[in-house]
């Protein structure tokens, strides 16, 4: 019975994803108004799904006015759904976007507010700014031709060699430079991996909830997203195995250490087992590790990468979140067979991360001052987290206190409709992330992510009090 329920749920999900896939292609302008859509048989073949699933998706397109039927001919795109690629007066719109891109997170974060709880980023005042500026001068003295030189595509050799040593010292990993690719932030790494390893309608496993910009990237790529719940205890490994058998996913995108948005950390015991599953079912684990060193009391378990012996993990280690956001340095680590195609994608994207950023990062990150700074940062973050938790005590909201990271993942009462609450907060200059944008199923309506890393201590207190007051007034009784 349980199996029946879950297979009905899967079919529903599949048809919904086929629908989303067709709508995205229409919105991208690939299929224009009055174009004939592919036959049900052809699309089912292309997407490797059942014809009935495509049929249901087409029926839904028709119901929603996105497609119409011509008797004995097939389905056609209805007017008003594609992006306007050709303008009647081209000179009045010289450049017209041909793509439909969405970044739900950025849309919220771009709104300027006083109480910025939506940015999972370190308060710039916590970074050793004065010391950094001395550094800039030093680095330019050491490399006088720095501004006049491109980096190679893979990343500055000196930095790559340092990163190999760093991974050896911190995780006992034996790497060579050909296992590495330096990217401009973790975001670029996710994007490149997605371009290289996901084709339209490829099944991929993604945590539920997850980092919302990654979701937007995968959707843009046309992936068939299969959610895997993440909880305080990690994943249900039996379920993960079942999904791997059933769907043969290309990748499993995971953020197992101080997970965004929940703060959960997948326990050590599961990490080795997950790598074994990945090997058994040939599913590439994409391990996104954006804030590994931002722990409070004790360091997190070793990355999945350390258990990988056969090249089934590609590891994304960003340093931009807590070292120097302005430099946006991240390293992707994997076997050359995984990294080489990414190098081509990187060369197409930007031909290499700016050399100035890489050199500045290298000399700053390897300094003793940096080590000291990280220690202080951890304490400052923990203090901020505790302030927010203290202020939230009276709200009746619930959460699991994270052991590191930047966020609280809060469950609000059903009586508080989050969408309206967020609008009200925005009007009063407070922002946070609604859980729904982190959910592949778009259902987590009662959850929000509150970041405590960006606002100073005084503002944190007053901001949370304001937030709680608005919630009190806004609750439906
Ligand atoms: C899990 C996760 N991955 C990747 C990123 C992007 O990192 P970067 O700033 O290095 O591009 C973030 C940023 O919030 C994140 O939380």
Automatic annotation (TrEMBL):
Its cofactor is pyridoxal 5'-phosphate. One of its GO terms (molecular function) is transaminase activity. Keywords: Aminotransferase, DNA-binding, Pyridoxal phosphate, Transcription, Transcription regulation, Transferase. It holds the Pfam family GntR. The keyword Transcription applies. Coiled coil: none annotated. In the C-terminal section; belongs to the class-I pyridoxal-phosphate-dependent aminotransferase family. PANTHER family: HTH-TYPE TRANSCRIPTIONAL REGULATORY PROTEIN GABR (PTHR46577:SF1). This is GntR family transcriptional regulator. It comes from Paenibacillus baekrokdamisoli.
């Amino acid at each position: 019975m349980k199996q029946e329920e879950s297979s009905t749920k899967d079919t529903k999900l599949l048809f919904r994803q086929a629908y989303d896939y067709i709508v995205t292609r229409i919105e991208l302008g690939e299929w224009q108004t009055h174009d004939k859509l592919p036959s049900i048989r052809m699309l089912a073949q292309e997407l490797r799904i059942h014809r009935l699933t495509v049929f249901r998706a087409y029926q839904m397109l028709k119901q929603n006015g996105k497609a119409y039927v011509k008797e004995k001919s097939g389905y056609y795109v209805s007017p008003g759904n594609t992006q306007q690629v050709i303008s009647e007066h081209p000179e009045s719109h010289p450049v017209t976007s041909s793509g439909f891109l969405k970044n739900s997170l950025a849309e919220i974060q771009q709104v300027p507010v006083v109480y910025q709880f939506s940015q999972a980023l370190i308060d710039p005042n916590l970074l050793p700014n004065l010391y950094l500026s001395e550094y800039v001068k030093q680095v330019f003295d050491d490399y006088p031709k720095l501004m006049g030189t491109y980096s190679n595509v893979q990343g500055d050799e000196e930095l790559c060699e340092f990163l190999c040593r760093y991974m050896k010292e911190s995780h006992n990993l034996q790497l060579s430079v050909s296992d590495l690719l330096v990217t401009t932030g973790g975001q670029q790494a996710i994007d490149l991996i997605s371009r290289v390893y996901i084709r339209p309608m490829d099944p991929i496993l993604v945590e539920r909830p997850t980092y919302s910009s990654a979701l937007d990237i995968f959707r843009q790529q046309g992936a068939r997203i299969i959610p895997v719940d993440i909880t305080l205890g990690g994943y249900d490994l039996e379920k993960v195995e079942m999904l791997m058998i059933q769907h043969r996913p290309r990748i499993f995108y995971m953020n197992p250490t101080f997970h965004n948005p929940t703060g959960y950390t997948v326990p050590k015991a599961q990490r080795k087992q997950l790598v074994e599953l990945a090997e058994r079912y040939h599913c590439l684990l994409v391990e996104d590790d954006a804030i590994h060193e931002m722990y409070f009391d004790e360091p997190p378990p070793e990355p999945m990468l350390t258990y990988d012996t056969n090249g089934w993990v590609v590891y994304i280690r960003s340093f931009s979140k807590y070292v120097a956001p302005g430099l946006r340095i991240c390293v992707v680590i994997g076997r050359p067979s995984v990294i080489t195609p990414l190098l081509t994608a990187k060369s197409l994207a930007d031909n290499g991360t700016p050399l100035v950023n890489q050199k500045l990062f290298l000399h700053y990150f390897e300094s003793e001052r940096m080590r000291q700074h990280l220690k202080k940062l951890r304490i400052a973050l923990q203090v901020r987290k505790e302030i927010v938790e203290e202020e939230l005590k009276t709200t009746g909201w619930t959460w699991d206190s994270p052991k590191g990271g930047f966020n609280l993942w809060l469950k609000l009462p059903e009586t508080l409709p989050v969408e309206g609450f967020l609008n009200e907060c925005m009007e009063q200059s407070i922002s946070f992330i609604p859980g729904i944008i982190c959910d592949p199923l778009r259902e987590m309506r009662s959850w929000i992510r509150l970041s405590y890393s960006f606002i100073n201590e005084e503002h944190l207190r007053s901001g949370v009090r304001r937030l709680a007051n608005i919630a009190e007034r806004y609750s439906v009784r």
